[in-house]
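Usage example:
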Amino acid sequence: LAKTTQPISMDSYEGQEVNITCSHNNIATNDYITWYQQFPSQGPRFIIQGYKTKVTNEVASLFIPADRKSSTLSLPRVSLSDTAVYYCLVGLPYGGATNKLIFGTGTLLAVQP
Amino acid sequence: SQTIHQWPATLVQPVGSPLSLECTVEGTSNPNLYWYRQAAGRGLQLLFYSVGIGQISSEVPQNLSASRPQDRQFILSSKKLLLSDSGFYLCAWNMDRGFYEQYFGPGTRLTVT
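Running the assembly step on the lines above writes:
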């Protein structure tokens, strides 16, 4: 399983764009990159997933360089309600006995007014 | 649409008492089911997962056990709680296709005193 490394915490202000980078140097050829968001006392929520280049949805964008050894979650114009822990995960997109989600400690994003 | 339920929402139990947490999923058939635990300020730790009725895989040896008596029901149990069992317990489900998109329940906050 590819290990991921993220900053422990980040600070931002309302209205700013926030970029959270995740390193995954040992990512395998068939692995996908997935990001989750977790608010206090709630379960994590799937945000976005990608394999290469750029993926965008209504919540965020995910940038993946050609070597795929890192990825960047971009949150446009954050608000106070975006304060949460963000997790980066790497692995196969399908199930099976050996495929498991591995959540690290994530990045605590604190958005200030 | 699919929904996932967990109960109770909060629980305070003395050391040595038994535990039973229940999780049910609606709106889907034969899901993969998971139990996670999250200690304060930590990431999620996978405890058990199940790919079908009666099929349980344990990730971490401990005094907890899991059972899946029905297709969409997942139960976490203990015969004698320890102080170290305190934490936030989350149930999740997904399908094999789209594996990395797991859907989490609201969680149970367990405090062992």
